[in-house]
Amino acid sequence: MSETKVIGRILSLGFPLPGLQVDNHTILSAPSFFDYDALVVDPRSASTLIEGVIHGANATSFTGSRIRLHAEQHDDVELRDLLARRRDETAALLQRDGVVVAFAQPETSHALAEGRVVGDYEWLPLPDGIALAAPLMVAGEGSQAAVVDWQHPMAAFAASQLANVAYRAHFDAHALAGLTVYARSHGGAAIGVEVPLPRGRLFLVPALRSVPSGDARYTMSGALQSGIRTALGVMATGHPPSWVKPDAVPGLSDLEGRIAEAQTVATEGGRTLAEAEAARDDLAKYQRLLWQEGTVGLSAIVVDSLRLIGFEVYDRTPNELELRHDGATAFVEIEGSDRVIDLTPHHRLRQRIERAIEKRGSAPRGVLFVNGERLLAPIQRKHISDALLLASETMRYGVAPTTGLYDAVVAKLNGDDEAVAAYRERLMAHDGLLS
Length: 435
Known about the structure:
Layout: E1 5-6, E2 10-13, E3 22-25, E4 38-41, H1 43-54, E5 67-68, E6 77-78, H2 79-95, E7 99-103, E8 109-111, E9 117-119, E10 137-142, E11 145-147, H3 155-160, E12 167-171, E13 180-185, E14 190-195, E15 201-205, H4 215-232, E16 234-235, H5 252-263, H6 269-284, H7 288-291, H8 296-308, E17 312-314, E18 322-325, E19 328-336, H9 344-360, E20 365-371, H10 386-395, E21 398-401, H11 402-413, H12 417-427, E22 432-433
Parallel strand pairs: 1-16, 2-3, 2-4, 4-7, 5-6, 7-15, 19-20, 20-21, 21-22
Antiparallel strand pairs: 8-9, 10-12, 11-13, 13-14, 14-15, 17-18, 18-19
Helix pairs in contact: 5-6, 8-11, 11-12
């Protein structure tokens, strides 16, 4: 699997989104959009602000300039110019393969002077022939929703807000070729979609009844940020927790010593240092099994670890990991979170197994690798919810904490082939949580 990059920043406009990598502003007060990797936009908030400026409300830009319908002073910013600039900035973000997430709302038009009209989506550049209006997007209201594509990056976020959905628009999947539907209403209307773009990705998510508060807001934010990182193909930033012990990986302490020694050598030190650092990094990566978030950051190291301990792993197709050993095959799903892992990866795995049954006539085995409560010391973790434990036992698939996979890696590096063989056997046979 290819090496992943680390995410920069997310800009949230009009939707409170807590997070270390998130800046919260409005469509009027935000810095340049192209300095971010992703946008989260509430068009309803943008609509209110645009209408406010039209009627004389006070508003300022990121640098403090007044925003006016018509410039009154030399440093005023005209609303139409600002919106045109936002459109160009969004185009630049998408051109860098950025992500835009917008809460789907029917567009409202705003009358400027001289007969000019702007809409709530004025900031969003779309290819010719695509408009967030009928027949593609139609007004509609409801609160019943279900995720239909659990592999989609926005599936976990949508699932986390099913009880809070108050959608205001739905989409005609026949009106646009390539439109991806990941959430539908109870009656089958498409309410969560991805619009195909030449570059970048545009997700339209169902509007919410209210912004969650307290712990629920952080859960919601975590699910949304994780989905964005998956769409970008990046991992969360972070450092190993203090409880991670470098000397637990065999040979790592010796390499740290070689690096320190090479740093003091003047002649040929560059080559010696580079070799030692490369070897150190190759071993240290396995510690990410203990604390890395998924699925992007965790997937690569899980695959490397499984291969190290003797499995054949097939990862040529995105989101379709499969491992094999001694003639046995298993579908693999991976999930990591600051919190207890709930049912989202179960639904992904179940969909894959159901498709395989339709195609092959038999059910393959499934293994779900989890890194739940990833920032706690392993001995303190529950890893998964009671609902996920029951689901795994009922459907008869294995749930394997990546902390256990880490132990198997350490055993392999220590030459304990018997322990590694025992782990492989249990992994391919055990139903429920593998302790």
